[in-house]
Design a protein that fits this description.
CATH topology of one domain: Four Helix Bundle (Hemerythrin (Met), subunit A)
Number of strands: 3
Order of helices and strands: HHHHHHEEE
Distance between the termini: 68 Å
Strand order of the largest sheet: 2-1-3
CATH architecture of one domain: Up-down Bundle
Largest sheet: 3 strands, antiparallel
Shape: globular
Structural class: mainly alpha
Number of helices: 6
Length: about 190
């Protein structure tokens, strides 16, 4: 009887193990990774100081939005998302040429979509979830074009999301006071 059970288990488990090896997700590392950040390198573009200044205004508005999430204030987050949306509209895309223009168009999509969700949501959890896309799009933009100052790209493994900061100190916008210092700096942008 024991031999029969061992054979049945072997016959059932062995094919499953083989399928897992052949499946494209079978050997994935499900640990602490920021998949959006790791999808590919972000190319650096030389852009005008005017464009960098306009992008810096978006980044500064983002810092205020992040602070609203740190404080756990959904209404303030709505207001700061509107401010950041206005800053986005003030960025003159005509200052970018060729590939840089196309890259900017790709990077602003998740920013604008996330800001819209944040502005329409009253629930801070939904707002924070949308903020992950905003942060990733802004990270790529800042890395590609620069903002004329040091920016810290920080990541929280618990939230599986990242954000930008002007300080090495961790102030987690995804958990606020619950886990304020959860996270680490993954990259320093200049």
């Amino acid at each position: 009887m024991k031999n029969l059970i061992a054979v049945v288990i072997t016959v059932m488990v062995f094919p499953i193990a083989l399928m897992a090896q052949d499946h494209p997700h079978g050997n994935m590392d499900h640990g602490d990774s920021n998949t959006a950040h790791n999808e590919g390198e972000v190319k650096r573009y030389e852009v005008s100081a005017d464009f960098q200044e306009q992008l810096n205004a978006v980044y500064q508005a983002n810092l205020e939005l992040s602070n609203a999430f740190v404080a756990g204030e959904a209404d303030v987050a709505k207001s700061k998302a509107a401010t950041m949306s206005s800053s986005m509209k003030n960025v003159d895309m005509s200052l970018l040429k060729g590939d840089a223009h196309m890259v900017w168009m790709a990077y602003i999509k998740p920013i604008n979509e996330g800001l819209k969700v944040i502005g329409n949501a009253s629930d801070i959890a939904a707002q924070r979830k949308a903020y992950a896309g905003v942060s990733e799009g802004l990270f790529k933009s800042v890395k590609a074009f620069g903002v004329g100052e040091t920016v810290y790209y920080q990541h929280c493994p618990m939230a599986k999301a990242s954000w930008l900061s002007n300080s090495e100190d961790i102030n987690n916008p995804y958990y606020g006071s619950m886990m304020l210092t959860c996270g680490s700096t993954k990259e320093v942008l200049n």
